[in-house]
Inverse folding.
């Protein structure tokens, strides 16, 4: 079973790591990733750049409003994810508990990744996406 | 909450189980290095696990669960040495030596000090060697294949005797007896806890790979019972193969095995119908194959081939699986290449099953008339007597050649010999189609 561990950080989290040496952050993250690789459970992982460099498209009105951000109005920011292939949700939780660079204000959300057989296979769009995944070696 | 079954208790038990699955190899590995005795390490690790199942629901989960388990294991090991010291001088010396760390005997570890005491055993530079040595020891040639499988699943996979028994459809007592016997054998043969020296390593690695393969095979083609696939065992084998690929990255066959398992597991979603009935390769909906697993398998195979030493038996089988994985349909499969790969496999690891598979590939590449003599030779040699595989392939070829009466008797024989209920149903259907 695949689970996505989603990192959610708040201003409090960012403040806590603001003055931590980047090398140290890389090291802590690297160790954790290595541990999951060693255990044969890590399938994919990505981290996201600073939220201030991002853009939000808000559909509350038409046409949608595009702003820089997100700033302030969001309590929690999605900052990155891992996908682990484990035997149970408990195991995914156990890995999540070991994530580095956490602290007050940090959260990790754990969500099961739908597997291919949960989608209708005879749908044209599923087929097209599958062809693309196949051609590009995607998950 | 003690003794109750409220949510807190259940959660703590779940944590014990999950921590154990993740950490047991490192815990037993560290304890084996510490005591020099895998059998004892496994015993005391199990004692620690049993204590955790009582203590964590009662006192809460410790801050460093793996450290807690290792510490309790270490203390139980010292207790054991002290008990044996009365009978044997060697143990007295060992007990003294091991006790030097100032470990208090008995009781539960207090959370903080205990965890660091346990953490001391986890030498990050040694942990990989510990786990690798553990795999080599659990798969030692002095042990029977059944014992190797049971012990490996126990110490590397972290499965309980109950889980192993359920997976193999044998009584728990049988698994426990196998593990007990295995541990006695290791002690009696004085098998050292070590990664074998380079000159023995490749051959010994062969034992480790074959155990992982056996576990996977049992998971991917249930030899008996009602389910066709037991994904838990297959998943466990995959996880162990990934661990080995990282611990022994310079061994091409480790990557070959990993590739074979990934590529085979990729087909699982398509191998069973809605009722759990088996779907044959030609009828499988290839859109249901797990593309991510195929990608991982092909990457591992490229790594195995990239070593430039030629593919071994697992690598060749992975290459065959890759031919299927990249083919849009049965007809568009490169059957000629598959025949060549089977020929190479026969030279490397001759077996009647490989020969039979080559015959099937031949029939796809060049037609049933070319393949039938190969199958007839096999039948004449009686090397697959008692297996349903040969009559089912022969029945299939005869069907395609229009020799219906002979096909009928072959398929009937296959039905009689087949132990898996699901597979038998497929053969019965084929038999019915002949009328």
């Amino acid at each position: 079973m695949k689970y996505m561990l989603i990192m959610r950080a708040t201003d409090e989290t960012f403040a806590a790591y603001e003055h931590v040496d980047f090398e140290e952050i890389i090291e802590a993250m690297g160790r954790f990733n290595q541990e999951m690789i060693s255990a044969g459970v890590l399938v994919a992982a990505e981290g996201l750049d600073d939220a201030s460099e991002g853009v939000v498209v808000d559909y509350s009105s038409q046409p949608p409003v595009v702003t820089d951000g997100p700033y302030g109005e969001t309590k929690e920011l999605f900052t990155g994810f891992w996908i682990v292939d484990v035997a149970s949700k408990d195991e995914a939780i156990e890995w999540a508990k070991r994530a580095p660079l956490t602290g007050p204000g940090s959260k990790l959300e754990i969500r099961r990744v739908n597997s291919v057989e949960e989608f209708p296979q005879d749908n044209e769009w599923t087929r097209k996406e599958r062809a693309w995944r196949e051609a590009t070696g995607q998950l | 909450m003690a003794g109750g079954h409220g949510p807190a208790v259940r959660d703590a038990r779940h944590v014990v189980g999950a921590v154990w699955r993740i950490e047991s190899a490192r815990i037993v590995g560290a304890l084996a290095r510490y005591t020099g005795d895998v059998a004892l390490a496994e015993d005391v690790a199990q004692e620690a696990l049993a204590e955790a199942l009582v203590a964590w629901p009662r006192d809460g989960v410790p801050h460093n669960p793996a450290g807690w388990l290792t510490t309790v294991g270490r203390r139980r090991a010292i207790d054991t040495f002290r008990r044996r010291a009365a009978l044997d001088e060697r143990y007295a010396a060992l007990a003294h030596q091991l006790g030097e760390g100032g470990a208090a005997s008995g009781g539960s570890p207090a959370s903080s000090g205990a965890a660091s005491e346990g953490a001391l055993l986890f030498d990050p530079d040694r942990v990989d060697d510990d786990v690798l040595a553990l795999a080599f020891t659990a798969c030692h040639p002095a042990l029977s294949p059944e014992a190797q499988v049971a012990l490996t699943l126990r110490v590397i996979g972290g499965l309980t005797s109950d889980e192993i028994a359920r997976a193999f459809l044998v009584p728990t007592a049988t698994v426990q007896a196998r593990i007990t016997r295995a541990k006695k054998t290791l002690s009696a043969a004085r098998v050292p806890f070590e990664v074998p020296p380079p000159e023995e390593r490749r051959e010994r690695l062969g034992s480790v790979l074959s155990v992982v393969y056996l576990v996977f095979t049992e998971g991917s083609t249930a030899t008996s019972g009602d389910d066709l696939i037991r994904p838990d065992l297959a998943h466990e084998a995959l996880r162990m193969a990934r661990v080995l690929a990282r611990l022994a990255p310079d061994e091409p066959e480790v990557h070959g095995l990993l590739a074979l398992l990934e590529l085979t597991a990729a087909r699982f979603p398509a191998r069973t119908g809605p009722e759990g009935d088996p779907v044959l390769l030609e009828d499988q909906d290839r859109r249901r194959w797990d593309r991510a697993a195929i990608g991982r398998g092909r990457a591992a195979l490229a790594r195995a081939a990239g070593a430039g030493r030629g593919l071994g038996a697992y690598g060749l089988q992975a290459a065959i699986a890759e031919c299927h994985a990249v083919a849009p349909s049965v007809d568009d499969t490169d059957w000629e290449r598959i025949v060549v790969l089977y020929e190479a496999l026969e030279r490397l690891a001759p077996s009647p099953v490989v020969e039979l598979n080559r015959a099937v590939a031949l029939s796809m590449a060049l037609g049933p008339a070319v393949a039938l003599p190969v199958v007839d030779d096999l039948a004449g040699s009686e090397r697959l007597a008692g297996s349903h595989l040969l009559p089912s392939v022969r029945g299939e070829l005869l069907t395609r050649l229009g020799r219906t009466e002979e096909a009928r008797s072959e398929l009937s024989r296959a039905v009689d010999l087949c132990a898996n209920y699901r597979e038998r149903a497929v053969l019965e259907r084929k038999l019915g189609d002949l009328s």
About this structure: The beta strands of chain A are 2-9, 42-47, 55-58, 65-68, 77-85, 107-112. Chain A has a mean pLDDT of 85. Chain A is about 35% helix and 25% strand. The radius of gyration of chain A is 18 Å.
